[in-house]
Every structure is written in structure tokens, then in C-alpha cells.
Write a structure and sequence with these properties.
32% of the residues lie in helices and 11% in strands. It has a two-stranded antiparallel ribbon. It has 87 residues and is of the alpha+beta class. The longest helix has 21 residues. The termini are far apart. The protein is elongated, with a radius of gyration of 22 Å. 0% of the residues are buried.
Length: 87
Amino acid sequence: MLATVSIKGQVTVPKAIRDHLKIEQGTQLDFKLNDDGSISVRSLNRSALSIVGRLKRPGRAAVSTGQMSEAVAEVAVERLQRSRNTK
């Protein structure tokens, strides 16, 4: 499929490719320059479920979302207190 580069350096991704890769407004595309001078493009459109299990570390217990929220809240309070003490 052919596409033409605009004066601003923009290219419209053909509809058949957008549909196949589920590319929609806001989707990020990753461009890679290959050694042979060609380029590869991949869609970074992923659902939150696609990252499940990627942060698992052997020997560490699983953490619930509630525990994560509590930890984030604790750090936020600590940072707020530190910022008030430095003024």
C-alpha cells in the first residue's frame, strides 16, 4: 500500500491497516529504522490486561491493588510533609 508524506512530514496510515491493528486516535506507533534502510512500524495500543504478570518478581509476594493504593497514599503524605518542612 502506498502513502504520501505531507509537507509537514505526516503520513496517513491506510484504513485497512488501521482496522487490522485497531489503530485509533491517540494510538502510539513505534518506528524502527532497520539496518537495510527499511522501517518497521508497530502499534503500541495495548489494554491494561496485556501487562498482567509482567511485574512479577520471583521470591516476592503478590500485592493487591488496595495495598498498592495504600503505599502510594503513604508516599504522597510523606512528600507533602517534607515539602511543608522545607519551606
